[in-house]
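Practice problem. Given the sequence and the SMILES for 2-acetamido-2-deoxy-beta-D-glucopyranose, write out the predicted structure.
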Amino acid sequence: MITEEKKRNTNYGSVFLFCFFCFVFVAEVVRFAKPYYNLIETDATLAEEAVVEGSYYVKNSVSPCHFMSSSSVSAVPKKKQHEKLSAVATLWRERPPTSYCIKFESFATLLKLVKDGKYESRPFSIGGYNWTFLIYPNGNKMDGANGYVSLYARIDNSTLISDPKDVYAEIKFFVYNRVYDKYYTYQETEARRFHLFKPEWGVPLFQPTSVFSTPTTGYIFDGEQCVFGIDIFVAQTFKEWEVFSFKENIKDPIFTWKLTHFSTLFTNSYTSDSFSSGGSNWVLKVYPNGDGYGKGNSLSLYLLSASNEKAYVRAKLRVLDQIRSNHVEKLVDGWANATENSNGWGYEKFVPLADLKDASKGLVVDDALKVEVEIIGFSKTDSTLSVF
Ligand SMILES: *[C@@H]1O[C@H](CO)[C@@H](O)[C@H](O)[C@H]1NC(C)=O
Ligand SMILES: *[C@@H]1O[C@H](CO)[C@@H](O)[C@H](O)[C@H]1NC(C)=O
Ligand SMILES: *[C@@H]1O[C@H](CO)[C@@H](O)[C@H](O)[C@H]1NC(C)=O
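Answer key:
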């Protein structure tokens, strides 16, 4: 009687287990299928739009390249364009993992030891952060995995307390296969976001646990050994950027400098006081008797960055006509020549000396010369600005 009772119990138990596994299997198939389904769906919509664009193309008879680069962008509805494509790929790779590897001498023993728990690697350093590699040999139940090996990357979030920020990392998981002599690889196209409160990301359903108990699959070899690996590539955000401010953003774009007793100026060059425009400091530099090819025949005029900054500048330099406002004006446009003794932006032959002597031109009045700069736009590289 007692044995019979026991038998019946076992039967109920196995029926229950069977049903449970069926449920888990279906649930997991749905989970896995979902990203692919999304991908297919998006492809289909794109294809549909391509047909619409095709007729548009014929109607307007635009050349294909031109059409692809400009019209197609506007033809795709905004919402679709920004839809995220998170593609998943599993593939075989010959090259070993770059970040970290764990070899278990016996997968079966690991399974016995940690049961439904996990093994956590010792910390390793990637991209300025400490990471650990987590392996659940029989699945992470919290993530709905059972009977699967689950793999996770975890960032040491203690360092993110003092400097709370998002760390984006591309993660790949590997397991070595002796039969193919390659690494079975799981990777996604999107980098994953780690932060203080979400320090962990991984794949619950990496491989069925059962493949690690069958030597013919190649995942265990030389007895019961197996090797798991991980690649972590921390995406760095840019450190330097370029800001281009336009005229409308520039305060005090015009600076005028009057040089008196012009005829008695004997020094090679004269530099103005520095003035501020658009958050940068500048000076004007005049060579009354010319510089370089202008020497002896022209006045040379330059705009310089007071702090010797390397920047892109677009500005108008002028020698003012003090009678009829018929100014001598020249445009400078480009990156500074940042060599030590550079003259910045300007012209060796800005205005002929003969024109300065010609009183009718109004450039020198009461023995005074007026030079002017109007800064239209400039950009500079800056590593101190924060982005967000
Ligand atoms: C990584 O771990 C080591 C050893 O525990 C520690 O000395 C180091 O400061 C850690 N680095 C970071 C960036 O957390
Ligand atoms: C680090 O992440 C874990 C897991 O989410 C969390 O429990 C813990 O509070 C985090 N640490 C800090 C210092 O916030
Ligand atoms: C920079 O200055 C040097 C020396 O004056 C000159 O040879 C060179 O052509 C200049 N480069 C530019 C881009 O102006």
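Check your answer against the key. Residues 1-8, 32-85 have pLDDT under 50 and may be disordered.
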